[in-house]
């Protein structure tokens, strides 16, 4: 019988070689597929680079994709660190956007700085509440947070759909199911395609690094993730730690909702997440739940997203091919992580060793 067994920690050299080899193998396989699609693979890869860094506008688009993914990944990372499997970043993202939009609808004439502050605050609160619900049930009744948070995604999506198609539908949209665009005093200021969410994200990264590595609650979250019995033995309040971690995790994901409607889309809609909440799970996991690696991997994934978007239009290749290239690279990267952490063995081999 075949078994999957966890390896000892791999050497740094092996990690580098396997990861680089995975990327190269992905590029080779992608090149074959691209060639069959009628495009030149070399030109395509140059196009990906140009699509991400070829101009200030394109680089701004890359950063625009990195910002929400980075903050979402940091949010997911906090929950994962204590082995609370938050699969609901999409729902928290949407509910944060609802909270931010609610501020605009209730207080449309606030000055820009106060408006943005209130939007960010309510987005954080809505996102936090959306995750604290399953966290409370997990802490008190031992419910499965994976299923709970996943189902809350669909509840949030249904709620936003109801707002878009009915309750908050813009009367001036000529019957189209659309929520009114945000006014100018609710939009993040921008320069050459770079909006204020980038500055906020830099601050969030620094705060989260301190929070996870230097603070008492960060230590308690890490201990709880390693062993609940150990956490209880050294006097950590389990319920309190779970609720605080959920508040931070969900709040960060909710904050992204404000960034997205105020800095990118300009209005709340069911399309604003673009699946980034699920991509953030992969980024956080591949980063080993460490803030610096989350930053690097978020940038790498943003290059994949922006590059795939650019080559689709620049080279007139089908969107499915661009998505396939993206998926192949991701698959090989995930495969390399599996190879680094696990090995396959069999009962026959065990008997031979014995």
TrEMBL record:
Pfam families: BPD_transp_2. CDD domains: TM_PBP1_transp_TpRbsC_like. It is found in: Cell membrane. Its main location: membrane. GO terms for molecular function: transmembrane transporter activity. The chain crosses the membrane at residues 16-39, 59-80, 92-108, 114-135, 147-167, 187-211, 242-261, 267-286, 293-312, 324-342. GO terms for cellular component: plasma membrane. Keywords: Cell membrane, Membrane, Transmembrane, Transmembrane helix. The keyword Transcription regulation does not apply. InterPro entries: ABC_transp_permease. It is a multi-pass membrane protein. This is ABC transporter permease. It comes from Acetobacterium paludosum.
């Amino acid at each position: 019988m075949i078994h999957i067994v966890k390896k000892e920690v791999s050497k740094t050299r092996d990690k580098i070689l396997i990861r680089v080899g995975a990327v190269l193998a992905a590029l080779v396989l992608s090149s074959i597929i691209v060639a069959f699609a009628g495009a030149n693979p070399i030109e395509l890869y140059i196009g990906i680079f140009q699509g991400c860094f070829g101009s200030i506008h394109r680089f701004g688009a890359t950063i625009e994709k990195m910002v929400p993914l980075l903050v979402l990944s940091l949010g997911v990372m906090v929950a994962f660190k204590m082995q609370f499997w938050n699969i609901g970043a999409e729902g928290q993202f949407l509910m944060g956007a609802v909270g931010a939009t609610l501020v605009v609808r209730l207080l449309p004439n606030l000055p820009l700085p106060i408006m943005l502050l209130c939007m960010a605050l309510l987005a954080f609160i809505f996102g936090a509440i959306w995750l604290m619900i399953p966290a409370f049930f997990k802490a008190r009744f031992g419910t499965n947070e994976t299923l709970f948070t996943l189902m809350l995604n669909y509840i949030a999506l249904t709620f936003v759909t109801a707002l878009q198609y009915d309750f908050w539908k813009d009367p001036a949209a000529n019957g189209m199911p659309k929520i009114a665009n945000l006014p100018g005093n609710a939009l993040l200021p921008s320069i050459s395609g770079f909006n204020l969410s980038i500055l906020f994200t830099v601050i969030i990264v620094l705060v989260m690094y301190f929070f996870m590595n230097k603070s008492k609650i960060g230590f308690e979250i890490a201990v709880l993730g390693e062993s609940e019995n150990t956490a209880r033995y050294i006097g950590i309040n389990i319920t309190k730690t779970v609720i605080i971690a959920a508040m931070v995790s969900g709040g960060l994901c909710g904050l992204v909702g404000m960034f997205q409607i105020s800095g990118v889309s300009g209005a709340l809609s069911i399309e604003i997440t673009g699946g980034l909440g699920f991509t953030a799970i992969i980024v956080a996991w591949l980063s080993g739940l460490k803030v610096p690696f989350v930053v690097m991997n978020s940038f790498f994934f943003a290059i994949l997203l922006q590059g795939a978007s650019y080559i689709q239009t620049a080279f007139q290749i089908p969107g499915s091919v661009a998505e396939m290239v993206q998926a192949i690279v991701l698959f090989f990267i995930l495969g390399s992580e599996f190879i680094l952490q696990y090995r396959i063995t069999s009962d026959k081999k065990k008997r031979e060793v014995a």
